[in-house]
Write a structure and sequence with these properties.
This protein is an alpha+beta fold. About 50% of the residues lie in helices and about 10% in strands.
């Protein structure tokens, strides 16, 4: 029996990961490879999936709001650019989808925030496994910012945005919220070896969807600091 479809916000986060995968494949594509035309089919599929995601959000019947409108317009722009990318050669195609992951994740965050603000009944309860550190790491992964490399038996995490610790990443992988795709990301420098892209699993996308767009302070305020000890001030001499 097939699994039920992911909620629309989680669906967008999965889609962002597919855009990252698409961009990575262009970055490591050998211009002489026989599968050179595969990026055309990939771009066509992503444009179609983006349009379907827009339809799914519209189908929730959310109240109209400037944030919702802006998110849907941005997603439509992504769909148009991606469809155009399918008609261009590799370099131009890569430019057209360069910022798609960030645009899709940003739209997902605005839609999620709108759902909570309106208490529409569509907003899920926050996943209690996600403190600020894990939430930040998943968000960076969704944006396509996180890769890993290995050297002398040690793993290293590299992020284009907020810092992600190796211990946090291992915890996310252990809990099935993130997954590693070996040698799928381009080298950090030339000549260098390909890097391992870190992507959200479907479970990770569903978990992040419950907190994305929520101010971090509401997720894990931390312990209340103890009041400072009173100190006596010596009387001033007259």
């Amino acid at each position: 029996m097939p699994a039920p479809p992911a909620p629309p916000v989680a669906r967008l986060l999965v889609l962002a990961g597919e855009y990252t995968r698409h961009n990575d494949s262009l970055d490591v594509l050998d211009a002489s490879a026989p599968e050179l035309g595969s990026y055309v089919r990939s771009a066509e599929r992503l444009a179609s999936e983006t349009t379907a995601a827009i339809t799914a959000v519209a189908g929730m019947g959310l109240f109209d709001h400037a944030d919702l409108t802006a998110a849907l317009v941005r997603l439509k722009q992504v769909a148009y650019l991606t469809e155009a990318a399918s008609r261009h050669e590799v370099v131009a195609s890569r430019v057209l989808t360069a910022f798609a992951p960030e645009a899709v994740v940003g739209s997902a965050a605005r839609i999620a925030a709108h759902m909570r603000r309106r208490r529409s009944g569509h907003a899920p309860e926050p996943d209690d496994r996600l403190d600020v550190v894990r939430q930040t790491a998943l968000h960076e992964i969704a944006l396509g910012h996180v890769v890993t490399t290995s050297s002398q038996g040690r793993d290293y995490v590299h992020s284009a945005g907020a810092r992600v610790l190796i211990g946090t990443l291992r915890s996310l992988e252990k809990n099935g919220l993130a997954e590693r795709v070996p040698e799928s990301a381009p080298p950090a420098y030339v000549p260098g070896g390909r890097q391992d892209r870190i992507r959200l699993s479907t479970a990770g996308a569903i978990a992040l969807a419950t907190v994305i767009g929520m101010p971090p302070a509401t997720r894990d305020p931390g312990p209340t600091p103890a009041p400072a000890a009173a100190t006596k001030t010596a009387p001033r001499s007259r």
